[in-house]
Amino acid sequence: MNPDIRLITAPEYKSGFKFKYWDIAYGDINLNRNERTQVITVNKSDIRLNAVYEETPLASDSNASKAGVVYESKSGNFAINVWGEENSDYTDLKTALISNEVDRAVLEEGREIKYSVVFNEAVPTASDSNAIKAAGGEYTKAALKLDIGLKRYVNDIFSPLASNIYTTPKVHVYAKLPNKMLGKSEYKLWKLEKDENSTDTVLTEIDTSHTKLNTPYFTGSFDFTSDIGSKILISYKDTNRVAIVSALPGEKYSQSKVNVLNVISGQTLENTPEYNMLALDIDKIYTEPATGIVYNFAGLSKDKEGHKKIGTDVPIKEQMILYTVYEPAKTDDGGSGNTPQGNINDIPDNTSDNHTENNKNYSKDKKTGDSKSDGVYSSSSSTSSLSKIIYAHKSAAETEGGKWISLDNDRKKWAFELKDKSRIKRAWADIKDASGAVNTYCFDENGVMQ
User: According to the UniProt entry, which residue ranges have a biased composition of type Polar residues (predicted)?
Assistant: First the structure.
């Protein structure tokens, strides 16, 4: 994976207010926060970077300049907008928080007040998961729980919240999903509350229709509005990558197309719009030019020979490679009007299963493995090459703390062992070396680096 090198710059003054520093809301990036102009290196991550300028005092309150609002997020995946003097979200939030007698008195004394919006992340509980499944269906997963809290500091010393403070103002949240949560379907945000008359969990969906959250262009970043004090659940549905190898009669598999579909776990192909579009192309009558034999599409199979057919009405619960099956057309009397030539999948393919082009095709396979949307790719008769298309992807963060281990005396076979002693298998993985550089590797079903 090659990092992206960019030049960033900010005006020294904006609306008469001087540049203060760069704020990294989220993302994997190294920079000098105080340099207005500099070259930065962006690793594989969505980032949100904003220039912060001197703050405009509230016109009605000269003491308000001694108050401020910041945010805390241990993961670095959540932020509020604290950037720039023209930010009405920030101004409205600060005004709401300090509009109480206690804070007014503190500010009159010349002391400083700082409020911090705190994003606390946690693993959803069993009751959270049950509530999400009840709302979204069997295959919906509660992926992340977020508690939006509030802290108060006076002269940088932690102080209790004032008794009459307005503790539930709205905040506009900027967020980035962890890499391990990307490549899913039907992302949703829910506000979690308890029913006042029972112990039941009440979920209210938060509007994210203005974001790219459920579009092919989603790369992890989104935003939403919520109240301070809210508990938020993020849910999604798992997807299974299905590679459909489309080989017409007389065509070698190494020359055919591979259509990669992301199918929601538990959903059938016939209920997947992308497959129905593909069916218009593969479900057809075909006359082979060389022989004149007419073939009909006979379905999909888990093997090239067509012995393990699978119906499009079968729920997809795992990653898989499927092959198109074509059979000679039947005549009116029930026989075949064609000279039997065998199933299309019986045609030999002289391309070696261990061909040496795999490493040369790394960039193509890597692009395929990273893809979050459906795509069409060239095929190969190599099962290992096809498998790379449907492998999952692990982020660098998930692999930190692991180590490389040699599997043979010649040190030609390597695996990557994680902290729990397990190996990365059937996956692409971004692995950071001692210098901080991140490289991407592919591991087969036995955990051997390809």
Answer: 338-351
> Which DSSP symbol is given to 93?
H
351: pLDDT confidence band, cut at 50, 70 and 90?
very low
Torsion, Cα of 41, 43, 46, 49 (10° steps): -20
Residue that has been written with the tokens 């008769």 in this structure: 381
Greatest CA span in the chain, whole angstroms? 100
Dihedral sign computed on CA atoms, order 106, 110, 85, 11: negative
Angle at which helices 383-390 and 362-370 pack, to 10 degrees?
30
pLDDT in tens, 381-437: 344 566 666 666 666 666 777 889 888 888 888 999 888 788 888 777 878 877 777
Residues of 68-82 as b/e, b for ≥16 C-beta within 10 angstroms? bbebebeeebbbbbb
Identify whether the C-beta of residue 225 lies closer than 8 Å to the C-beta of residue 93: no
Q: Give the residue from 282, 328, 326, 330 showing the smallest Cα distance to 304.
A: 326
How would you label 391-416 residue by residue, b for 16+ Cβ within 10 Å and e otherwise? bebbbbebbeebeeeeeeeeeeebbb
∠ CA 307-308-314 to the nearest 5 degrees?
Answer: 150
Domain residue spans in the chain?
55-237, 239-390, 392-443
Number of residues assigned to the chain = 450
Distance CA 341, CA 329 (A): 12
pTM score, whole prediction = 0.64
